[in-house]
Amino acid sequence: MVRYAEAAGRWVPLATVLGSGLTFLDATVVNIALPPHRRRLRGPLRGRRPAAAPA
């Protein structure tokens, strides 16, 4: 068990805050960047069936 009074224990809150902050940033970037890429990738594929779809 790590105690906050020890040197190793002082890094636990910092690592928790940094980890949650990076997760929030990653989710924000994906939510902003995904819609333009989705529109761009679906554009030429409309009206086509996947190769594995039955005829």
Commentary on this structure:
The protein is built from one helix and no strands. It is mainly α and 55 residues long. The radius of gyration is 22 Å and the shape is elongated. The mean pLDDT is 79.
Strand content: under 5%
Q: Globular, elongated, flat, extended or rod-shaped: what is the shape?
A: elongated
Q: What is the terminal separation in angstroms?
A: 61 Å
Give the radius of gyration.
22 Å
Low-confidence stretches: none
Helix coverage percent of residues?
55-70%
The ordered string of helix (H) and strand (E) elements is H
Mean pLDDT level: 79
How many DSSP-defined strands? 0
In DSSP terms (H or I, runs of 4 or more residues), the helix count works out at 1
Helix/strand-derived category reads mainly alpha
Biggest beta sheet attributes: none
Keywords: Membrane, Transmembrane, Transmembrane helix
Protein name: Major facilitator superfamily (MFS) profile domain-containing protein
Brief overview:
By secondary structure, the chain is mostly helical. Helices cover 58% and strands 0% of the residues.
SSE map:
Layout lengths: L10 H32 L13
Keywords summarizing the entry:
55 residues, mainly alpha, 58% helix
